[in-house]
Amino acid sequence: MLHFSRWKIVAIVLTCLLGAMAAVPNFFSKTSIKSWPGWLYNSQINLGLDLRGGAHMLAQIDVAGLKKEWLDNIRDDMRSRLRKAQIGYTGLGNVGDKVQVTIVKVEDVDKAVKDLRGMIQQIGGSVLAAGTPDLSVTQEGSNRIVVAPTEAAVRARIDTAMSSVIEIVRRRLDPGGNREITLQRQGADRIVIQEPGVEDTSETRARLKQTAKLTFHLVHPTVSADDARATRIPAGYKLFPSEEDGGGFELLQERAIVGGEDLVSSEAGFDSRTNEPVVNFRFNTTGAKKFGAVTQRFVGQRFAIVLDGKVISAPVIREPILGGSGQISGSFTVQSANRLGILLSSGALPTSLTVVEERTVGPSLGSDSIKAGALAAVVGSVGVVVFMVFAYGLFGIFAVIAVTINIVLILGLMTFLQSTLTLPGIAGIV
Predict the structure, then answer these.
(1) Which of 236, 280, 387, 398 shows a CA-CA span of 20 to 30 A to 347?
(2) 179 or 79, greater pLDDT
């Protein structure tokens, strides 16, 4: 005769009871669950789009903005190379889908072309085949040089951006990785987003619309934003709109001292002194070193925290910040602080995202699917029970009980983990 120790029996019974408690709410309506006592577990399993309905959205990346940012980087690289080579130039700027510059001395043109061609990189190459250049550098007239991205490079950059956007959006909308959100590329620059069980898409839109590009800049130590607007903006500085104190502008160094790509983690919290919602963040080793060196060098000077091109905070550096962690404060609510923490942890989008189509899958589709799935489950289960009992007698009954407990435990675990149940999932369980 089989013998089980008492602790094993207790563990099995407790596991079955806990699984049943977690699974039970799935057999009641949401209305009835709301009336349950607070101490009772009342979460329900997430149903997929095919069962429950939900939101269907079509989003489009900003290809023009992506190209402009690339051209701006090319322009800055050209400026740096020409200055390093001590070549005089004028008229450096973006013109359409290219960047052009005029060399002051004609005799410096050949040297400038050679230096600027050093920016060219090969894309799509392999061991057996040469790649395609990402830039073309040509001379127009006697002293004008034009740098333009190639078509192959533009397509490759868009493909890379799309892959990055899909991954970042997935982390933003499903940080826990258990909601079965569908993300699918459509065409060159669009993404299909399906969220099961979502009726109000305002939170989804809020998480999609923000690029969440976080940067840290030094504030000009002597010139105010008002003075710069009235006279002349110093070289290397730029006016950024501010969300502090009712708006205005801040005069910041155009080049960021640290970027959001150096963040390891960020999460919502509360300020220990004011108890206001804040976002706590932590840098990786590289970011911590850069941030620590800057704050050590510029003690007493202001630095600005910029999110998507807007200053959200510009505190004074009271002492060196060497620990690699910090806090972002502002006019946050608990919800907005939590959202910003998720966005920063997910990473910044390489370009902005716009929702161009949105619709809600009707409940009739979900209702029909549930009825069909439930009918299939009942018919299949009854057939299995009848066969097991007639074929194996008492042992068949034991097997049916074991399978039933197994299904209850599966439902309970999926409910506890907030996993998503789809029609194929029902078929798999049955």
Answers:
(1) 236
(2) 79
